[in-house]
Design brief:
Shape: globular
Number of domains: 3
Strand order of the largest sheet: 5-6-7-8-9-10-11-12
Helix content: 10-25%
InterPro entries: B-gal_1-like, BetaGal1-like_ABD1, BetaGal_gal-bd, Galactose-bd-like_sf, GH, Gly_Hdrlase_35_cat, Glycoside_Hdrlase_35
CATH class of the largest domain: Alpha Beta
Organism: Phasianus colchicus (Common pheasant)
CATH architecture of the largest domain: Alpha-Beta Barrel
GO molecular function: beta-galactosidase activity
Bound molecules: the ligand CCCCNC(=S)N1C[C@H](O)[C@@H](O)[C@@H](O)[C@H]1CO
Keywords: Glycoprotein, Glycosidase, Hydrolase, Signal
CATH superfamily of the largest domain: Glycosidases
Distance between the termini: 38 Å
Structural class: alpha+beta
Family: Belongs to the glycosyl hydrolase 35 family.
CATH topology of the largest domain: TIM Barrel
Strand content: 25-35%
Number of helices: 12
Length: 608
């Protein structure tokens, strides 16, 4: 392609910058029975932490432990009575600073599932309803009783304006909001009450936020607890049959994501009764069964904490049963915040389902840029490294179709995945076509690598990225999400070591991060690292970017590692971004000599 055409193409690409709008969406895909976050399939693995049961100085510790266990969201109740001790008197300070708790979760990269009630149950005093409601002795709680609704609306008009700017669609981290709580278990069964709440939540939160209900996984409980316009979810513990329980949800929601909003990791204690104890193995197995189904799960409780002061509630089953001060719940994180055997069992399960590409929230914290056609690095002000281009197949492609790029428009290498399965590599001066097949809506990703801008010999600017439009059987692919990747920043901040649970990993085809640690033998000398059987990628040790490796291409087979970046007497963190395919049992070798030339003597170290 001559320069003018390339120039024109470039101009066209540049002209399209106005189309670049930030995409922040969290919706239900009723076709593919999943959530979509920014247009991409998304599944949450969440845990309940109640800020009202944890002193504020410990919030960061508890949320970080939840994050490091591999969860990507935290479910949060808002107890009305904790914030409105007297009618019209509000307290959001100190341990009651719910905004600070939500913002801390956001800072730690956690999404939030918010449950503002107004009734929350939770073994909390009066289920979160303020005791002063009972000054009107004949009030009918959780109904369309005008006195009750007046107090509810006044409270929601104070609380929900604090929530709205933190909604995911507004740049925050709250992905969904629950209306009421297990209303199907309440005798009143007043659908006008739920309808009123729906109206108030929509008026104060806007049309985009995902609103849902939660009820026990029994059809009779779902009958009164659900409402058109509120996505119905269920709750059940490890002693339930997963298929039957989600079958109850499907009775109300035949399509949409499976959601267990309260997967009981333990249970509450009553005065006079035994401390609850639920087997870690049973809890982990139930979690694995649900994740295998692709379900979204919130573990109730991940961390229970304590019913300080007079905040413990009570159950009534023909007999008054007050709940204890400890809300340990036999949860994965103990009342005092200590990890338990159950936490490690859960972390192991999650690590088997952790999806590295879900870490786009970390690697691309500003979120994707939405554009009709691909944008180049320079348009989005990305200098070096990698960008991820994502779109969906526009139609079923049941027979292999040709995915193609204009010649020389791949600057410089594009690693193609369909539904996260590696399809092959598009190259600047090489292969520009691949054969793919899939279903409408399948996610097509192109991880685009900048291999370095021309330093001599060209009379044009060496722009980077997808400089042209990809097509499928000659029909242009549109509606792209573009993620500039800040990999170095994430690694320097401790990702993925702090985030991804350690698990024995087997090599896979296509782009993937591999992490590990190693000890030096008491010295920190210069060394050379070799990649037996690896293909091409990038290497970091202790946050230092050592550069590109490409033993598949050669000639060099090792990377130089300066001794100055190594640590003695403590683990060294190593992160590998392999782009085309790691060996089945990935390992690295440290040598005291460089290998500058690709050898073909098939020595054991060269074994693929
Ligand atoms: C014996 C408790 C019966 C009601 N509560 C139930 S089932 N639960 C569901 C309820 O939504 C939650 O807030 C918690 O109260 C949980 C028990 O920890």
């Amino acid at each position: 392609m001559g320069l003018p055409a390339l120039g024109l193409l470039l101009a066209a690409a540049l002209l399209r910058t106005e189309a670049a709008l930030p995409a922040r969406s969290f919706q239900i895909d009723f076709e593919r029975d999943c959530f979509r976050k920014d247009g991409a399939p998304f599944r949450y693995v969440s845990g309940s932490v109640h800020y009202a049961r944890v002193p504020r100085p410990a919030w960061r510790d508890r949320l970080l432990r939840l994050y490091m266990a591999g969860l990507n969201a935290v479910q949060v109740y808002v107890p009305w009575n904790y914030h409105e001790p007297q009618p019209g008197v509000y307290d959001f300070t100190g341990d009651r600073d719910v905004e600070a708790f939500l913002d801390l979760a956001a800072e730690l990269g956690l999404l939030v599932i918010l449950r503002p009630g107004p009734y929350i149950c939770a073994e909390w005093e009066m289920g979160g309803l303020p005791a002063w409601l009972l000054w009107k002795a004949d009030i009918i709680l959780r109904s369309t009783d005008p006195a009750y609704l007046a107090a509810v609306d006044a409270w929601l008009h104070v609380l929900l304006p604090k929530v709205k700017p933190r909604l995911y669609q507004h740049g925050g981290n709250i992905i969904s909001v629950q209306v009421e709580n297990e209303y199907g278990s309440y005798y009143a069964c007043d659908p006008s009450y739920l309808q009123h709440l729906l109206g108030t939540f929509r008026a104060l939160l806007g049309p985009e936020v995902l609103l849902f209900t939660t009820d026990g996984a029994q059809v009779e409980e779902l009958r009164c607890g659900t409402l058109q316009g509120l996505y119905a979810t269920v709750d059940f513990g490890p002693d339930s049959n997963v298929t039957e329980a989600f079958g109850a949800q499907r009775h109300i929601e035949p399509r949409g994501p499976l959601v267990n909003s309260e997967y009981y990791t333990g249970w509450l204690d009553y005065w006079g009764g035994p401390h609850a104890s639920t087997s870690a193995t049973l809890v982990a197995q139930g979690l694995a069964d649900m994740l295998q189904l692709g379900a979204n799960v919130n573990m109730y409780m991940f961390h229970g904490g304590t019913n300080f002061a007079y905040w413990s509630g009570a159950d009534f089953k023909g007999q008054y049963k007050p709940v204890t001060t400890s809300y340990d719940y036999d949860a994965p994180l103990s009342e005092a915040g200590d990890p338990t055997e159950k936490l490690f069992a859960i972390r192991t399960v999650i690590s088997k389902y952790a999806d590295l590409l879900d870490v786009l929230d970390v690697l691309s914290p500003s979120g994707p840029i939405q554009s009709q056609f691909p944008l180049i690095f320079e348009t989005v002000k990305q200098a070096h490294g990698f960008m991820l281009y994502r779109t969906q197949l526009p139609r079923d492609i049941l027979a292999p179709a040709t995915l193609s790029a204009p010649p020389h428009s791949i600057c410089d290498r594009g690693y193609v995945m369909l539904q996260k399965e590696y399809q092959g590599t598009l190259e600047r001066d090489g292969q520009t076509e691949l054969r793919v097949k899939g279903k409408a809506g399948d996610t097509l990703d192109v991880l685009l690598e900048n291999m370095g801008r021309i330093s001599f010999g060209a009379n044009f600017s060496d722009f980077k990225g997808l400089l042209g439009n990809l097509s499928l059987d000659s029909r242009l692919l549109r509606k792209w999400l573009i993620y500039p990747l800040a990999i170095d920043a994430a690694i320097q901040q401790g990702w993925p070591h702090a985030a991804l649970p350690k698990s024995s990993c087997r090599g896979r085809a296509g782009p993937a991060f591999y992490t590990g640690t190693f000890e030096t033998p008491g010295i920190a000398w210069d060394t050379f690292v070799k990649f037996p059987g690896w293909s091409k990628g990038q290497l970091w040790i202790n946050g230092f970017n050592l550069g590109r490796y490409w033993p598949h291409q050669g000639p060099q087979q090792t990377l130089f590692v300066p001794g100055s970046i190594l640590r003695v007497g403590c683990p060294n963190n190593i992160t590998v971004l392999e782009l085309e395919g790691a060996p089945p049992n990935p390992f690295l070798l440290f040598l005291d000599q460089p290998l500058f030339n690709r050898t073909f003597n098939h020595s054991p170290m060269d074994k693929e």
